[in-house]
Amino acid sequence: MSEPLNPPESVYHLIPKEEVPSQKAQRYTSKYRPTVLLEEKATKDAMRTMGPAKVEVPSPERYLKKRSKEPKLHEKTQGSKEARHTSTARKPAVPARTDKPTMGIRTKRDSINTATAAPIRARPACVDTRGGHKQLLENSGLVPKYIKKKHYGEVPQYLQRLHEEEMRAQEKYDALVKEQREKRAMKHLTEKERGAALKGLKKSWDELHQEYQGLSFVADNESKKSHRLQLEVSMKQLEDDIQLFERFKTIYIPGK
């Protein structure tokens, strides 16, 4: 068992210990403290009097006069009413009773014929609310003015242009499809080609049949069984093709 580091009772505890006074850490003092104090003192000393230290003193010649702060009226101009009444220019004299008016002045305008030929008429309007809201009849949409236009009912030019572009694209697509169909069209085999194909089919059947005859009689695993089955399916397909070529003289095959 381990011994305690500090036993509760010991002879050494009877020896008096010296008390060491604790020292506080030095207080932080900014190095800018003297400069801040000087600036604050200079700012306070500048405002010790009533108001700012430097103020422009009013001149004795510009003392406050009576009615100096009242709003002043605009000065009279030549176009004002007072200026027109106080003008010194003389007006033309009034015509005398013996003066004769100027005669013989005629105008080419015939007011009577003008008024009868083109009388001033009110433009037709309509009231569309019971509150009396009024608007011109032409702008109300009730007048069929659009159907009387010159090109009314015709297909717009931009639609005709789009239709022509669509037709050209359709014709191009149809030509491409036709060309592809012609390439994939059925090809007719000649008698020589039919004979060569029939001979090749029989040769392939002979090769498969020879391979089939060489197989073991007992198929004891899956690989042998699958190989035998594959050969039988291939031979059966070749037999059907040979029978088809021998039965029909006209043969068509798909093109490349």
Feature tags:
two-stranded antiparallel sheet; 256 residues; 4 strands; two-stranded antiparallel ribbon; mainly alpha; flat
SSE blueprint:
Elements: H1 33-46, H2 81-85, H3 111-117, E1 125-127, E2 134-136, H4 157-183, E3 186-188, H5 191-213, H6 222-247, E4 252-254
Antiparallel strand pairs: 1-2, 3-4
Helix pairs in contact: 5-6
Can you walk me through this structure?
There is one protein chain. The protein has 256 residues and is mainly alpha-helical. Helix content is 40%, strand content 5%. The protein contains 6 helices and 4 strands; from the N terminus they run αααββαβααβ. It has helices spanning 33-46, 81-85, 111-117, 157-183, 191-213, 222-247, and strands at 125-127, 134-136, 186-188, 252-254. The strands form 2 sheets. A two-stranded antiparallel ribbon has the order 1-2. It has a two-stranded antiparallel sheet with strand order 3-4. Strand 1 (125-127) and strand 2 (134-136) form a beta hairpin.
Show unreliable segments: none
The value of Rg in angstroms is 63 Å
Give the overall average pLDDT. Answer: 82
Helix content: 25-40%
Task: Give the gist of this structure.
The chain has 256 residues and is mostly helical. The chain has six helices and four strands. The longest helix is centred in the middle third of the chain and has 27 residues, at 157-183.
